[in-house]
Amino acid sequence: AQSVTQLDSHVSVSEGTPVLLRCNYSSSYSPSLFWYVQHPNKGLQLLLKYTSAATLVKGINGFEAEFKKSETSFHLTKPSAHMSDAAEYFCVVKAARQLTFGSGTQLTVLP
Amino acid sequence: EAGVVQSPRYKIIEKKQPVAFWCNPISGHNTLYWYLQNLGQGPELLIRYENEEAVDDSQLPKDRFSAERLKGVDSTLKIQPAELGDSAVYLCASSLAGSETQYFGPGTRLLVL
């Protein structure tokens, strides 16, 4: 069985400072991992995905994530937060054609 | 290119009433998913269709929930009768056959009073 744990339900950063959203996964197989973002009243949007190629994955809007098998982690980072980054972020693991979502991290960006 | 379309966006009903949600996936996407998202949680899969065939409905509460995708394009999710605990956001997603990337609609927010 596969699962993901998002270690922080809320993260608050100041505009222009780095963002770190933490995710640990559990999977019986070599996993495919994703980060999705959900803005209020909008659909979930794919930020990036890891599918056993490069361990450092670059996504849209300046986000990137690093797959670390030894730590079973897939943390999402961005060097400098923008106000438009305020949203809920979901770490997702895929196995057997099924997505399993984490409980989400609400990112607040302070001016 | 149009994204996944869902309607209605919002629905308020009294308990024990029926309700239906509609989804139009991205053109050409063979695979369609329905998810349930409770407040403060991540989405959970209810059912997955490959064309018109439901290939994974193990999480669908079949006593009150039903779904169909008759022509392998649009899909309808129905609840009858609705219960207070069904208040949630119902998300539809679609993907190309064999693709890992799912595209999500904006969801239908259901409130059962």
| Total beta-strand segments of chain B | 11
Cα shape of chain A: globular
Distance between the termini of chain B: 37 Å
Runs of chain B with pLDDT <50, length 5+?
Answer: none
Cα gyration radius of chain B (Å): 13 Å
Tally of individual helices of chain A = 0
Q: What assembly state would you assign to the polypeptide chains in this entry?
A: heterodimer
- Provide mean pLDDT of chain B, rounded: 93
Strand content of chain A: over 45%
N-to-C SSE series of chain B? EEEEEEEEEEE
The biggest beta sheet of chain A reads: 6 strands, mixed
The averaged pLDDT of chain A comes out at 92
Based on secondary structure, the structural category of chain A is mainly beta
Alpha carbon gap, first and last residue of chain A: 41 Å
Task: Please describe what this structure looks like.
The complex is a heterodimer of chains A (111) and B (113). Chain A is built from no helices and twelve strands. Chain A has strands at residues 3-6, 10-14, 19-21, 23-26, 32-38, 45-50, 56-58, 64-68, 73-78, 87-95, 98-101, 105-110. In chain A, a hairpin with a 4-residue loop joins strand 8 (64-68) and strand 9 (73-78). Chain A is globular, with a radius of gyration of 13 Å. With 113 residues, chain B is mainly beta. In chain B, strands 2, 4, 5, 6, 9, 10 and 11 form a seven-stranded mixed β-sheet that branches. Chain B has a four-stranded antiparallel β-sheet with strand order 1-3-8-7, with no helix packed on it. Chain A binds chain B through residues 9, 32, 34, 36, 41-46, 49, 51, 90, 92, 94, 97-99, 101-104, and chain B through 3-4, 40-45, 48, 56, 91, 93, 100-107.
